[in-house]
Write a structure and sequence with these properties.
Glutaredoxin, single chain, about 250 residues, about 15% strand, alpha+beta
Length: about 250
């Protein structure tokens, strides 16, 4: 969570290399974690806005890793995650939300394997990676599935119809995309990526937690609960319109 921060580089061809930015104008970088409620909201809205604006097939989402467990050196606390569901979920109920219904011992202890899978799916193209990312979010937030587990990740992938699960399994078992998770985390450190989610465009425009600001009351994350101060769903439309103008 953070306030809005936007920067624009006037000439993207003359700027120094910035590893946070898309490699081409037709991609939009989204740094996030899979068990972040604000990211689930933002990704849902980005997909909805892209379709609404007629940009499917023209703009693609390059999902990058903002692994909260590596920043916090701890599991993303379930009490904190649970406290966000009714608050953040109320902003877009159709995204798919519910409190965890499975036994405590089936709750995901890590999102690193699932984040790695999304990176691995990029071998099969942007649509495969996007679809897997969204399906894993729904598997966690709406279906009580332990996305830490290899077989669950592969089952979710197979169920998308857009990902070759056997090919994904081979990529995961090779470990060749694990380094991407760590590299993206290192790029995000030192306040270079503000929070999960943080969106970047090719021209340098970026927006943290697009359209939403919030604060915590009665204690920190895991003790208190969030209050939404401002919600502007059109913020993602503005971002994608600007991205489309760069094509």
């Amino acid at each position: 969570m953070s306030d809005h921060r936007t920067t624009v580089a006037v000439d993207p061809h003359a700027r120094p290399f910035d590893p946070r930015l898309p490699r081409s104008p037709d991609t939009v970088v989204v740094y996030s974690d899979l068990n972040c409620s604000f990211a689930h909201l933002a990704v849902h809205r980005l997909h909805q806005a892209r379709t609404r604006l007629g940009l499917d097939g023209a703009l693609f989402f390059d999902h990058r890793c903002f692994p909260l467990e590596l920043f916090d050196l701890a599991v993303n606390e379930r009490p904190g995650v649970d406290s966000e569901v009714s608050v953040v979920g109320a902003l877009a109920p159709e995204a798919g939300w519910r409190l965890w219904q499975g036994p405590d011992w089936t709750y995901p202890v890590s999102t690193l394997p699932a984040l790695e899978a999304v990176q691995a799916a990029k071998e099969q193209g942007w649509p495969a990676s996007e679809t897997l990312d969204r399906a894993l979010r729904r598997a966690f937030w709406a279906e009580d599935r332990c996305i830490t587990l290899r077989h669950v990740i592969l089952d979710v992938a197979a169920g998308t119809g857009a990902v070759d699960a056997d090919r994904l399994a081979a990529a995961l078992d090779s470990g060749r995309h694990r380094q991407a998770v760590i590299d993206q985390w290192r790029t995000a450190r030192e306040d270079r990526v503000i929070c999960s989610p943080h969106v970047f465009l090719y021209d340098g425009t970026n927006l943290a937690n697009p359209g939403v600001t919030a604060h915590w009351v009665n204690g920190r994350f895991g003790v208190g609960f969030p209050v939404i101060d401002h919600d502007d769903p059109s913020a993602v439309d503005t971002l994608l319109k600007q991205a489309a103008a760069l094509l």
